[in-house]
Amino acid sequence: MEEKENIHQGVEASMSFLETSRKKNNKVENKRRFSDEQIRSLECIFESESKLEPRKKMQLARDLGLQPRQVAIWFQNRRARWKSKRIEQEYRKLKVEYDNLASMFQSLKEEKESLQSEVQKLSYMVETSHDGGREAKENSTEDGGSGNAYGNCMAETKERFSNEGLEDRMVIYSDDQNERGLTRTEKVDDRGNELLRNEEIPLTALEKWYNVDPSVILDQTCSSSQWLDFWT
DNA sequence: ACCGAATGCTCAGTTACGTCA
DNA sequence: GCTGACGTAACTGAGCATTCG
Length: 232
What we know:
GO molecular function: DNA-binding transcription factor activity, RNA polymerase II-specific; transcription cis-regulatory region binding
Structural class: mainly alpha
Function: Transcription factor. Probable transcription activator that may act as growth regulators in response to water deficit.
Subcellular location: Nucleus
Order of helices and strands: HHHHHHHHHH
Domain Homeobox: 25-85
Region (Disordered): 1-32, 128-149
Number of helices: 10
Strand content: under 5%
């Protein structure tokens, strides 16, 4: 009963619309909104099919007391509204994903910076201990060749490092258990062991694990800013 | 088979009206 | 009552597919 009244109301609205809709310049003079019932029916059909076949359009127009053109325009506008809503939803979803990635990138960036400064610190420590070795070697020649154990050890190691590959360096340490190793052991007892444990091993380990020179890592990570620029 | 006009549909963009705070 | 924002019915023009002579 109420439904029929609604449709009747809609039909009346549509009829008055048709009678008075067009005047000068083809402009709509008295635009009427569709009734709730008309909208409900249109929405109901739109849910199952967003495009209407011509026959269905005619039938629906008859049922709702509208012109087929009005039904076609309603579907057209409804598709447009649906599309803009969908674009809005997709935008929101992408924004959330972007924000998550951006914050993940930020924390990775901070972690990278802290690791870089740690590597720099370690490099500095290694460098200063190498310099200390050279000083020690110089001192040892001065006191007649008997020498400073730490200085000899470091000077020898440094020299080998500059001439040989990483694998060779590892062999040197294992070979030191032979006759040469013995003399070294004697000498190394006071300071050398501590040095190797605390400073040399971390460096060689670092080089072995990454198979690169730490200073190169620093240079590369700092300079390869193409993708970094993208984010910042 | 090919061509061009007519027709009908969709879409993006725009206009204009109705409603509401 | 006036006004600006907003939602929406309707229009416009372009592009595309189909039909028909």
